[in-house]
Amino acid sequence: ESYNFLILEDDPYSFVHFLDKAPTTFLELDTKGRVIRLDSISKVISPGLRLGVVTAHKEIIKKLTAHMETTSIHPSSLSQMLLYKLLNAWSVDKLQKHFNDVQRFYRSRRDVMLSLIEKHLTGLAEWNVPKGGMFVWMKVNKVKDVMELADKECISQGIFVIPGHAFNYDRSKPEQHIRLSYSYATPEEIDKVLVLSAPPHYI
């Protein structure tokens, strides 16, 4: 506040958490109207909708609305109508049940990926245990740069992984990390990509 900053809270996975209690948001702590919160409908209802929600002080919303009216005009009318009809048909309890089902689904996918990572990559890599979302962040040991691993062992065989370079401000630097997603892949596909991530010449 002393620097007159606004906080942009971009939290598309807020409803895809694996905790007993939802994490506290910056918006919940905001008493001065300084937080602009972004939530995603696509992550918890349907990715094809391509819709999100902005929550902010009413004066900020006015400016964002004016900007949208002169740029994209508005999101898909069909997507908006589908969401409107759905939210009118569902009770709050049913919506919460859906969120709980989404959390259970992705938690089970996460657990499958973690068990297969432990099976194939113990001693070869280090990884986090996600508390939410759809991704595992992994450091590949004994590899100075994962770009070759991603290109030659994975992407060339139709397996898409994200090298850590994509998340660095300087993408020219060597990077040992990759991001793996468990949102769509089957357990069999996850098993395949992890086998490819640990070929003999990387062990």
Care to describe what's here?
- This protein is an alpha+beta fold and 203 residues long.
- It has two domains: 7-89, 3-Layer(aba) Sandwich (Aspartate Aminotransferase, domain 2), CATH 3.40.640.10; 95-202, Aspartate Aminotransferase, domain 1, CATH 3.90.1150.10.
- 38% of the residues lie in helices and 15% in strands.
- It has helices spanning 26-29, 58-69, 77-89, 92-121, 147-154, 187-196, and strands spanning 7-10, 35-40, 52-55, 125-127, 135-140, 162-163, 177-181.
- The strands form two sheets. Strands 4-5-7-6 form a four-stranded antiparallel sheet, covered by helices on one side.
- Helix 4 (92-121) packs parallel to helix 6.
Range of strand content = 5-15%
H/E topology pattern = EHEEHHHEEHEEH
Low-confidence stretches: none
How many β-strands, per DSSP? 7
> What would the CATH topology of the largest domain be?
Aspartate Aminotransferase, domain 1
The radius of gyration is 20 Å
Percent helix, as a range, is 25-40%
Structural class designation: alpha+beta
Top CATH class of the largest domain: Alpha Beta
Q: Calculate the mean pLDDT score and round it.
A: 90
Strand order of the largest sheet: 4-5-7-6
Largest sheet: 4 strands, antiparallel
Global shape: globular
First CA to last CA: what distance? 51 Å
Query: What count of domains describes the coordinates?
Result: 2
Spell out the CATH superfamily of the largest domain.
Aspartate Aminotransferase, domain 1
Protein name: Kynurenine/alpha-aminoadipate aminotransferase, mitochondrial
Cofactor: pyridoxal 5'-phosphate
InterPro entries: Aminotransferase_I/II_large, Class-I_PLP-dep_aminotransf, PyrdxlP-dep_Trfase, PyrdxlP-dep_Trfase_major, PyrdxlP-dep_Trfase_small
Domain Aminotransferase class I/classII large: 2-194
